C-alpha cells in the first residue's frame, strides 16, 4: 500500500541514494528489494518529490535520465512510467501511436476509452501544449473509416464531463440506441454518433448497463450483425473497451505482439491501483495462468540484476492492486 503521510526529507534522500547507487553501477551498496520497494510502495506524488530531491542532491534530472535510456532498458521504462505525470505519459503514448511509425490503433483505443473523461480533458490539453497540435485533428488526419469517427466522438465527449451519472438519462439514451439499431434495414449511424458525442465515458457505461437491463443483452452483441457492417465491428471494439476495460487489457496481453513486453509493462504500471486485479482475473479466466506467471516468463529467464528488479516491481504492483 502507498504511504499516505508526508515523508521526511531524510527518507527522500535515502530513496535518492539507492537510485543513484543503482544508476552509478554501485550495486554492492544496495539490494534489489530496496529498489523494488521505491517503485512499488511510493505513489505518484512521492515519486515526484523523489525526483525533486534527486535533482537537488545530485544535480541531475532523474526523469530525463531514465527517459533517455528507457528504449532498451525494461527497468528504466518502468521507472519512467511510474515517475512521469500521467497526463504527459498518455499524451506521449497517443503521439507515438499516431506518428511513431506504423499506426498503433490499439493504444489509441486504450487511452481514449479507458481513461475517465476528466483525465481525457487534461491529456488533450497536455498534448496541445507539448506538441503544439490538436489531438482530434491529428487523429482525423491519421485514421480512416469508422474508427476515425468513433474515436473522435469519444475524445469530444469528455467536454461533457460530470462526476454524477444520470440513470434516467441513460435509460432514455439506451432506448434511442435500440431504435437506431433495430428500426430500419440499416443502422442509424448518425444517431449513434450523436448520442455518444454528448455523453462522457462514465455516462456511456451507464447507457450500456441500461441497454442490457432493458433488452436482455449487451449493445455490443447488437452491433455484431451483418446489417451493422464494418462500422458495427469497429463500434463493438470501442464499446467493449469502455464497458469492460479489464477484458480489453487481458486480450491485449494474450496476443502475440512484437511489443509484448511493452504492453505488459505499460498495462501493469498504468492500471495498478485501478483495475489490475480485474485484469489479472480476466487474463486467468482465458489462459488458466496469472499475470505474475506471465511476468516471470517474460523477464525471469535470465539471471541478471536488472531483470530481477523488473520482476519484483511488476509482481509487486500486481499484488498491490
UniProtKB/TrEMBL annotation:
A GO BP entry: response to cold
Source superkingdom: Eukaryota
Residues that coordinate or bind Ca(2+) 1: 23, 25, 28, 296
Pfam families per UniProt: Annexin (PF00191)
The UniProt record lists the keyword Metal-binding: yes
GO molecular function: calcium ion binding; calcium-dependent phospholipid binding; phosphatidylserine binding
Record bears the keyword Ribosomal protein: no
GO cellular component: cytoplasm; plasma membrane
Binding-site list for Ca(2+) 3: 298
Coiled-coil ranges (or none): none
Assigned keywords, A-Z: Annexin, Calcium, Calcium/phospholipid-binding, Metal-binding, Repeat
PANTHER family: ANNEXIN, OS09G0368850 PROTEIN
Protein name, UniProt field: Annexin
Organism: Gossypium davidsonii
Amino acid at each position: 500500500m502507498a504511504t499516505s503521510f508526508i515523508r521526511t526529507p531524510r527518507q527522500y534522500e535515502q530513496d535518492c541514494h539507492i537510485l543513484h547507487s543503482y544508476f552509478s553501477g554501485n550495486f554492492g551498496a544496495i539490494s534489489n528489494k530496496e529498489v523494488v520497494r521505491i517503485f512499488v510502495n511510493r505513489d505518484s506524488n512521492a515519486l515526484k518529490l523523489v525526483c525533486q530531491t534527486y535533482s537537488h542532491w545530485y544535480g541531475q534530472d532523474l526523469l530525463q535520465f531514465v527517459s533517455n535510456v528507457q528504449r532498451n532498458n525494461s527497468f528504466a521504462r518502468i521507472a519512467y512510467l511510474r515517475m512521469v505525470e500521467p497526463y504527459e505519459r498518455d499524451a506521449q503514448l497517443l503521439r507515438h501511436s499516431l506518428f511513431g511509425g506504423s499506426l498503433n490503433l490499439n493504444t489509441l483505443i486504450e487511452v481514449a476509452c479507458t481513461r475517465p473523461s476528466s483525465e481525457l480533458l487534461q491529456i488533450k490539453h497536455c498534448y496541445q501544449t507539448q506538441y503544439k497540435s490538436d489531438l482530434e485533428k491529428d487523429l482525423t488526419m491519421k485514421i480512416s473509416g469508422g474508427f476515425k469517427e468513433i474515436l473522435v466522438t469519444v475524445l469530444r465527449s469528455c467536454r461533457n464531463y460530470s462526476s454524477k451519472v444520470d440513470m434516467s438519462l441513460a435509460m432514455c439514451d439506451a432506448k434511442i440506441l435500440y431504435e437506431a439499431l433495430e428500426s430500419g434495414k440499416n443502422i442509424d449511424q448518425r444517431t449513434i454518433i450523436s448520442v455518444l458525442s454528448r455523453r462522457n465515458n462514465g455516462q456511456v457505461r451507464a447507457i450500456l448497463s441500461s441497454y442490457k437491463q432493458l433488452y436482455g443483452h449487451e449493445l455490443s452483441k447488437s452491433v455484431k450483425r451483418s446489417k451493422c457492417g464494418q462500422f458495427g465491428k469497429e463500434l463493438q471494439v470501442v464499446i467493449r473497451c469502455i464497458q469492460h476495460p479489464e477484458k480489453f487489457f487481458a486480450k491485449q496481453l494474450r496476443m502475440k505482439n512484437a511489443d509484448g513486453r511493452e504492453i505488459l509493462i505499460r498495462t501493469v504500471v498504468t492500471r495498478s491501483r485501478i483495475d489490475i486485479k480485474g485484469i489479472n482475473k480476466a487474463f486467468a479466466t482465458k489462459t488458466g495462468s496469472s499475470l505474475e506467471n506471465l511476468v516471470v516468463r517474460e523477464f525471469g529467464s535470465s539471471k541478471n540484476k536488472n531483470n530481477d528488479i523488473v520482476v519484483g516491481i511488476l509482481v509487486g504492483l500486481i499484488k498491490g492492486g
